[in-house]
Amino acid sequence: MMSFGRTFKVTIFGSSHGPEVGVEIDGVPQGSVVDTAAIQADLDRRSPVGRRLATRRQEEDRLVVDRGIREGRSVGGPIRAHVANQDVRREPYDRLRDTPRPGHADFPARVRYGASADLSGGGIFSGRMTVGLVIAGSIARGLLRRKGIEVGAFTRSIGDVEAVVPEEASLAEILRAASGQEVGTPDAAAAARMEEAIAEARRSGDSLGGVVEVRATGLPVGLGEPFFDSVESVLAHAAFSVPAVKAVEFGAGFRAARMRGSEHNDPFVWVEGEVRTATNHAGGILGGLTTGMPIVFRVAVKPTSSIAKPQRTVDLASRSAAEIVVTGRHDPCIVPRAVVVLESVSAIAIADLALTGGFLA
Questions:
Q1: Which residue of 87, 95, 246, 295 has the smallest Cβ count within 10 Å?
Q2: Quick check: is 226 in a domain?
Q3: CA atoms within 13 A on the CB side of 297
């Protein structure tokens, strides 16, 4: 069952080369405004259409709401929405049926589900499945925004090209600058180098990974639960549900292991009558609860698995060694299109925590 959440429950359905991909969402309070134009805008941010550096698979991703929304508001029951799969080509994957792609889910999926499983385009393991996450995340972001909570993401790095982001920049300023770049970074100089790195990887038949940074502002103090439903636990669960995510760090993250307590601890201060911290090495979370500071975490996205370079694999039919060259249409770097997906799953996780804890009542 491909579901996430307790109160704001998201269930995705479909497959890469099936008729459709979409989502069913339970828990949207009755009467909540649902902006379908905003959902479509987020789907457009994820779509490859119009992107020079993305897959050649051209899916328009026009939103279809099946039920749960009437005259722009939730009716209180489950919301179901989808987009059609239109630009489907199975032939390249039929040729790979007995030769699993290195780095992809082909081999464990075949063992788990059998040789007849439809793994065209990755099947249910494809990044195409994130369409439903974007739809649900857009709705979640709308719920949060009405309480003054903003969730946004941007590209921090691609390959070895790192963006420079001024510490004093607000989330709104960062997102505004990032929106003007195809790679989704606020650093225009780094964006040019990122684009060239992606283009070079494509020319050589290879791929690149990178890091997406997610921030959330306007959060109340005390959101979350200790231990198993800590804010880090829930956000990490949601982030790792996105294909190709391999690591997550909060605040100072892995740098914390090289810091002393006197350096890592964030001093408490008064700011306009509110308790805040002078630094934010904790990433806005202590003891699994929000502190009122911005949540800041970063997600490592691996290089796209399907590449045109020859790779070693096995032939499952003949039980012999084999070599594979993956053809078809694939992103040389999925990081730019993953930005809105990671933004969306973060909004889903925070909305679920907030609704469960009564913060969105």
A1: 246
A2: yes
A3: 25
Q: How far apart are CA 264 and CA 249, in angstroms?
A: 15
b/e map 274-298, b = 16+ CB within 10 Å:
eebbeebbbbbbbebbbbbbbbbbb
Sign (positive or negative) of CA dihedral 43, 15, 208, 167: positive
Tens-digit pLDDT profile for residues 168-221:
999 999 999 999 999 999 999 999 999 999 999 999 999 999 999 999 999 999
Q: Is residue 138 part of a domain?
A: yes
How many domains does the chain fold into?
1
**Are 59 and 127 in contact, with CB atoms under 8 Å apart?**
no
Residue 117 near residue 123, CB atoms below 8 Å: yes
50, 196 in Cβ contact below 8 A?
A: no
Backbone angles phi, psi at 336, to 5 degrees: -60, -40
Supply the range of the domain harboring residue 114: 3-356
Measured between alpha carbons, how far is 38 from 44 in angstroms, rounded to an integer?
Answer: 10
Tokens standing for residue 128: 């195409």
Give the pLDDT confidence of 331-355 residue by residue, as tens digits: 899 999 999 999 999 999 999 999 9
State the pTM of this model.
0.94
Q: What is the CATH number of the domain that holds 343?
A: 3.60.150.10
Q: What is the C-alpha separation between 295 and 317, in angstroms, rounded? A: 49
DSSP secondary structure string for all residues of 97-166: TTSPPTTSSHHHHHHHH-TTS--GGGGGGSGGGHHHHHHHHHHHHHHHHTTT-EEEEEEEEETTEE----
The answer to whether residue 189 is domain-embedded is yes
